[in-house]
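Final report, Chapter 2: Outcomes

The project's central promise was a pipeline that accepts a single protein chain and returns its three-dimensional structure in a standardized token representation, suitable for archiving and comparison. That pipeline is now operational. To close this chapter, we reproduce one record exactly as it appears in the project archive, with the input sequence first and the structure output second.
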Amino acid sequence: MAARNDITRITERIVERSRASREIYLERIEKAGREGPHRTELSCGNLAHGFAACGLSDKDALAGDAVPNLGIITAYNDMLSAHQPFEHFPDLIRAAARDAGGVAQVAGGVPAMCDGVTQGQPGMDLSLFSRDVIAMSAAVGLSHNMFDAAAFLGVCDKIVPGLVIAALTFGHLPAVFIPAGPMTSGLPNEEKVRIRQLYAEGKVGRAELLECESQSYHGPGTCTFYGTANSNQMLMEIMGFHLPGASFINPGTPLRDALTKEAAKRALAITALGNEYTPAGVMFDERSVVNGLVGLHATGGSTNHTLHLIAMARAAGIHLSWEDISELSDIVPLLARVYPNGPADVNHFHAAGGMGFLIGQLLAGGLLHDDVRTVWGEGMAAYASEPRLTEDGAVRREPAAAKSGDDKVLSTIDKPFQPNGGLKMLSGNLGKSVIKISAVKPERRVIEAPAKIFDSQKDLQDAFKAGHLDCDFVAVVRFQGPKAMGMPELHKLTPPLGVLQDRGHKVALVTDGRMSGASGKVPAAIHLTPEAVDGGPIARIREGDIIRLDATAGTLEVLVDHAEFDKRAPETADLTESSYGMGRELFANLRAAAGPADQGASVLY
């Protein structure tokens, strides 16, 4: 009951904080709903352009207002494993739409980049801003005002948050998100980490490392570790944008195809032309946001969502804060152990009971708002289920199992793996940051050590290879924030810092950059704001200053006399080399306009 009261209190606080902006938002989408789409009010030239490439039956259907038209926004490309399965989804959706008496058209495509490909490369500096570019690209596709609902095909890190921002910007339209599913399990994650650390130490070569990575990432579908991509899928389901049980069905299977067809039909059923009108902007409210955060904490999800959820919420007039996120983490127990919080992958999570079991447990514990609208209807109870394929190829749902299929991967509300979600806000004289501690051993959650200063992750890697880091230290990697560099992920730091920790050293990371959903066993204070390029306190840290990171107390401090620290001039860095190449020059205006990390690091809000 105490947890239920806390969930209600935090939700009401968000509602009150957002009241004025939410009212303006709802008024705007209500007006948009009244004004369109009404295809008969388009000029004949407008309409003819809109259905010129359609078949005769679809043209006849779209000539009036009686038949719903589903706009497909797709992140398909065939280089990225997570998005390659989307190649054939439009054909399935169009066929399902016709079966349901409607029409479906691909309204537009959006870019989809992979942080796994660009890690440590210049292209990574475009990654975070691709979220806002995706939102704008989707808006271009939907701006033709030809559609009664939208189906969004996207999976990975920035793609889903960008698509959600677009869906909420067109919040008068129903929006159904259709996932592609994870690839089948490959090399165990613990073995992958072992080989990566051996490579960092020079004990195996590139050929061995490439063979390891190829066995891990080996086929179509999402990467199987629980990073941002799979956190996205969990969020879309627990926030009601997916159909129940849709998130973690492997691509290329009959059930996956059946769920895709079902999603298309459901999207057409909830338009304003029917009796179940479910506009995305009304469906997505403060309760939905809190449900998403509860799911994130209960599964040990991605730190990237301390940026993305704030930006997504703002698109609907809702003001979420890091304080809200941290406070919810303190009261939501960890129910899943999926890598990097454990050895299992998302396929093991799904086999153990997956989203249906998880949602059932959270409902039983009073930790979810059940009285929400979803694309499936009213309430979250329907999501405590598991989809099955019938003999005739349709989908039926069974109640989720009452018992976990593997209690080392998925546990109950009465026996959580730990009493909190492990995603916390740190604050102190260095500003505000976030840390994910669900994979950090308790004895490593408080680190006090001298600072070693780096202005790039390459500098730290070079120091490691030269043998200069065999000691206790806090790595301060600065000038990596949204305005400086576009806030790249710094995963190249994970292997060397992990090696040093395994050697018995006390190590931690403090940075104004990101570490994303794969934040692991090394304590990392990330997203530090104000960032260094804005003259934030991180730019006043000097080599050898003692830094104390206390993830238990929620503090991050440099232990220098306050008067002395305040007198220091912030150091600067020459960022010329990182401002061009691989398209980075095209993003200069976005870097300049980027908001701070605790407000979503967005150029849109």
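Archive annotation: The chain has 22 helices and 16 strands.
This record, like all others produced under the grant, will remain available to the consortium after the project formally closes.
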